[in-house]
Amino acid sequence: MNPPPGVSREGGAIDAAQLQGRVRALNLMGLLANWSSVQGDPARLGWVNELAGWEERERSRRSLERRLRSAHIGRFKPLADFDWGWPTQCDRAAVQDLMSLSFMLDATNVVLVGPNGVGKSMLACNLGHEALIQGRTVLFTSAGQLLGELAALDSDSALRRRLRHYARPDLLLIDEVGYLSYSNRHADLLFELISRRYQNKSTVVTTKPFGQWHEVFPNASCVVSLIDRLVHRCEVVAIEGESYRLKEAKERAAQKAAARASTGRKASKK
Q1: In whole angstroms, how far apart are CA 19 and each of 43, 63, 77, 218, 262?
Q2: Strand, helix or coil at 8?
Q3: What is the pLDDT of residues 149-184, one digit of tens each?
Q4: Distance CA 201, CA 168 (A)
Q5: CA dihedral for 48, 54, 55, 56, sign (positive or negative)
Q6: What stretch(es) of the chain map to CATH 3.40.50.300?
Q7: For residue 207, which of 229, 236, 176 has the smallest C-alpha distance?
Q8: 79-239 has which CATH code?
Q9: What is the band of 1 on the pLDDT scale with cuts at 50, 70, 90?
């Protein structure tokens, strides 16, 4: 049932001035040019209110789809499916607080530290997805892809453009720092990117313990400065335990073995 003239679907009276502001934000210039014929007519105000709602929802949906494509997060397990009982150490309250994205208000960084397979990347993807839902711009990349791409650029202008590309998102997710070794140039490039985002935009990094970074960047003189710049305004969440992926792989193997054994028993009875 349609609401009475001049009443929104929520049941409240339509504020003509507020509705005009929404129409202006939507850039519906033809409607604005004829606003005098709208504001005094409750029936027209009701119709324009509904039209503005349609347009706002559609633009919001398309914006989210566009930002999802640009973020390159890909498929990931939702936080609701995370097995909190598996890690031997993981501050659940700290992770849930991070999901409020309050750390982004003052450009605080987040570092998820731990061994391979304990859920660091999955948690980072959930943070990125939540930021997208809240209207932020997000970019997900692996450390190898990021540093390899930057190091391959052979002109200063191309490098500056690409650094601006990675410095631009509200939230940058850098996955798997510490799984490959890099040269001095790679370390310098990462330091330059972190410095550009420092105190301006939040960066989420998944990594092995910082004590191993001298092995990741074995000859780089900027490692101490890089870590200092990254953690100065930072939430560090340590996750310990054995690989959850290895656990799942063992469970799948056991299920397949049980299925084969059951099939073999049925075949032997025939």
Answers
A1: 14, 22, 40, 60, 67
A2: coil
A3: 999 998 999 999 999 999 999 999 999 998 888 999
A4: 8
A5: positive
A6: 79-239
A7: 176
A8: 3.40.50.300
A9: very low
